[in-house]
Amino acid sequence: MTADNQVGFLVPLNPSNLEEQKDSSIPKISLAEGINYVGRNCIPVIDKRLSRKHLTLNISANGSAEILVEGTNPVVVRARNERKKLLSGEKCTIGNGDVLEMIPGHYLFKYLIAKNMESSSKQKRPLNKESNSSKDQAYSSKKTRNICEDTLVRKHLLLISFLFECLQWPEFTANIPSLGSVTINSSFFKKFNYSSAVVRLIASVPGYHSGSNLKKWGHMKLRTVLQECTFEKEFHMSPLVCQFSSLGSLDEKWMAELTASMSAGVTEEKKPLGLGKPLIIWPTVEDVRCSLEGYAAGNAIPSPVKNVEKEFLKKYWAKWKASHTGRCHAMPHIKTFTRYNGQNLAWFLLTSANLSKAAWGALQKNSSQLMIRSYELGVLFLPFSGNHCCEFSCTYNGNHSEAKSESSRRSEVKRTKLVTLAWKGNRNAESTEVIQLPIPYELPPKLYSSEDVPWSWDRQYTQTDVYGQVWPRQVQLYTCQDS
Fold first, then answer.
1. Which residues pair with 447 in a beta bridge?
2. 442: which of 21, 86, 172, 225 lies 20 to 30 Å off by Cα?
3. Would you say residue 156 has pLDDT above 70?
4. Which residues sit opposite 351 in a β-bridge?
5. This prediction's pTM
């Protein structure tokens, strides 16, 4: 890894054969020099036997580590063909290749020292610090450039795969100004310069996805993209928001699965962001009754009682409020997901996907397969740092780099900061480029009160709405009588 203070990893293992679980829903955990907390704060499981801070790993600069069991349940260390059980409060030193059982027989991880740490411990640092720094900067710049180019390639390949392989778009001809008659097919899209694209596509495709396709679609694609991203420290353990117009038949296990994907990513110190608490923004019955369309607005929020009134969902409900845009009484059909701290956003996803297993996919077969039932497409907004411009053209034939203005050249290396329209900061005081996104609801969301009832469209409501109607609407029948 490129971070100077990153010295190792905890790699998830298959308990049956102690081999690395490359397709596991449990991610590889990055470890930095010093104190690292490991538990449910970074391991996406709902097993309460695993404490949020189950153990601490105190790692020295050379990669050797001392573990301290913080949780109430024991931890097993496998070292040199021996198994040693550590109870709460006990310590032990581990080395490269040793295995930890977070719960005896469950949640196995192998401790591996980063390769660059292994090599650096055998070599002396150069005396010429200035020269070494220049080389490091050049290498870092080259590495960043290669990563960016690779990301751009993957961006347009996903678009082409989604359109022509999955949706099976037929080839057709279109008349484009300045280009004339053009054949629209996969080769046509490969001709574009995608260097100005600073968003990522998150798509879903029906089917059973495994192997190399496991992380290509649905919530596993979101997890994979976020795992590649570095976020500000303020988003550590920050909450999540799910806002949509139709609620599927969910269970708590799947909610934990989706939460793990939405919580992926690391801080600038290369520590996991940690699991965020998800909130579900959903209109109440009173919101719909008093809306601009009255109960009729509920037609666009089609979720049945059996999905809405599950007991475990009560802790997630949050109100639909949009006073900052004057849209409190406009019932939403938009679908958005985000992670936030105050008015600052770690990321923001605008999508067609509702909150359902069908749209996002559900892991099966010990997390080696993702099953999806519907087609979805979303655009993920991320903070960006690097070379980018704000222009995109379908018809320009010249060199994009030559066409850039001097102002765009000056701003292209700036890091962006995503905020809401309600953000009150000073743009001029920021060292980053501030991008305000029109988030359709207020942050932070307000939780339901004990009197609030989530809207479901197959229930009877006898209290009349703003138009004097009840739900479902009563149809009056008139009969003709002979005079």
1. 318
2. 225
3. no
4. 378
5. 0.66
